Amino acid sequence: MAKDKAQDHARRLLSLWEPPADAGKPVGVLATTFTLDTGVFEEECLARFVGVQSDPYRDGAIYRIEREEKLSSLICAAVVTDIHHCSGQRSLRWDLIPSRPASGVMHAKISLLAWEKHLRVLIGSANLTGAGYRRNQECAALLDFEGLSAEEELLAPILAFLREILDTTSGVGLDRALKLLDWVSEKATRLPSPKRGLRRRFIPIGPGKPNAFDQMDVYLPPTRPTEAHVVSPFFDQTARDFGPVGRLWEMLRQRGGARLHLHVGGTFASEIGKWRLQVPGHLLESAVPESPTRSWHVHPIAVTQVQTEAGAENRPLHAKSLTLSHPAWVAWMVGSSNFTSAGLGIKNKKGPHVVNYEANVLYYFIGDAANPLHGKIASGGHRGTDHINWKTDAELSPETGEEDGEGELPPPLPAFFKGATLMGGDEQGYVVELHVTPSPKALPTVWQVRSGTTCVFDSVEWTRTEQPSSWQITLERHGPPPSSLVVDWQSCDKTHTADWPVNVDVSAVLPAPAELRDLSLAALLDLLSSARPLYEIIRGWQRRQVNDDDPDGFSAADIVDPHQKVDTSGFLVKRVQRACAAISYLRKRLEDPLLSEAALAWRLEGPVGARAVMAAIRRECREDLPDEWTFLLSEMLRELRSVVLTVPGGARAPAALQARLRDFVDELSEELVTVASGASPQVQQLARSIIEEPVHATA
Fold first, then answer.
1. Could you write out the three-class secondary structure of 287-306?
2. 273 and 178 co-located in one domain
3. Domain finish residue from 478, 493, 509
4. How does pLDDT run across 593-651, given as a tens digit for each residue?
5. Exposed / middle / buried, residue 589 (Cβ in 10 Å: 0-12, 13-18, 19+)
6. What DSSP character marks residue 167?
7. φ, ψ (nearest 5 deg) of residue 184
8. What is the DSSP letter of 339?
9. CATH of the domain at 492
10. Of the residues 165, 191, 217, which one is the last residue of a structural domain?
């Protein structure tokens, strides 16, 4: 059954990315955000989700190895970010997907975290940034679905809305994100929603959808609420005839008493004895009630000198919520919607309007005010101080910014630049395929694509080559593959610059961490035969090399394969025994349950995968003993042909994964045909019998 804690001040947001007890192995994560700090997501959020134990700054290579190994097992790790903020360096093991909505901005903050036996959805106000997760005053709805059992009326619209957001994107990362949503849809057990007690509904905002107030009207009783509490850092910058305040007053009780409370960020200026409130004057003027029985109140929420466990700190208000109360029911909506027309989906009756993509959760309880649950919901969320007279006790200094749908945004990457995909590479360079949409509306007149400071393609070359819709470039290899390119373009006599995110076509093309390339066969046998994770074994190697004067054991400059210090290549029997043992352990590793093609690619093409084992065996075999290499390659083909790929639970892996393994086995078979031609007649006969052996398991 599902449990939720809409806001638990005792738990930090980052801890919500950690798996609950008995959740099983991580399956995948799909998050949406308006602004993004790639370092925070990768090192703080994603690391907690997959259980990375090492530290990126202290452990260096150990962290990179552990990160690569754990991320390779996921169906998907992706962040959808509004096109205006889609930038940052990162590991290509996770996708950065730009959202380009036709209206407004992609402002929803949803994090879908899937483990084998548990599903968690976070919907709130915090962007995936350091400010959002560590500094701001934020709020979030935590939806936990234990055993993958979820309310149909809650989970289904969340998954559908994520698909709508993905419709505003394109590129190779989109397919992986959809596969994760398909997995959740297939595995989740759907339950009916409760008919009493606490109820929850998803309130999405977007083009073509009803506004938040109309959606709440569908679920709430027809009796009008008598009190409303609004918490928001942003408001419409200009007055609207029928904006959020007008729509809220319309929703409140028309006859009898009704109270509207605005909780806004502010700083108390002791030098003038007044609050400086982050709210526009036109909003307060429009909040004047229409009758003596209807009142409104302004409550400051301190954003400076906020008392925390660490002392007084500046904590900007970024939470967004709306509470509605009636003696017979209560409701609380929490999520990403600011109290703006764009955030709440209110259309302008006169002229054009802007609607953002937003995500909120509505909690409501139908029952007497004497019920403790009624009081808990009514008093939940952020609350300011006692109300003040804003005309005499405050100065107004409204916050303006990008989130209200009207603020100044940096020019986004033009729609002409559709996608950049890493296709592969070698020691000489990385191959990146660029895709464009050559429509007149999206086409800038003058532009260039850069890798660092080097121009790799521009509008002149594009025109000279007859304006292709896609082409490939090769980038010099300096460190890891590029996770973004830079585009400069001219518009209205101004030069603009934006990042162009790069995603990987298939994870198999990603190079292994430099520390794990060309390991000896003995080292691979160590890694394959151990029950410990790969990064722990490497850490042990590192600690055996460190200076005795280093008490922490982390200052070693390089990771060195300890087996390379001893040359046993001359011992034929030991070489064959070692190779056969490595092949046997490799088969067991391949038969461990897996979830994705990326996981299989890591086991086949990764630094401790089948190809690495094959290369290490080949390096140890003597050139003057062709029978040795032919025999060992025959053994490897025999073992891999009998591998049965499965998913968690024991079912056979999808056909695409079986085909991927079969392609690798066919490649081994072709290699064996070539190699066997130089072997003795007896070994040739052995190789031929294995090549001609019927295939069952991988077919």
1. CCCCCCCEEEEEEEEECCCE
2. no
3. 509
4. 998 888 999 899 988 899 999 999 998 888 888 899 999 999 999 999 999 999 988 89
5. middle
6. T
7. -65, -45
8. B
9. 2.60.40
10. 191
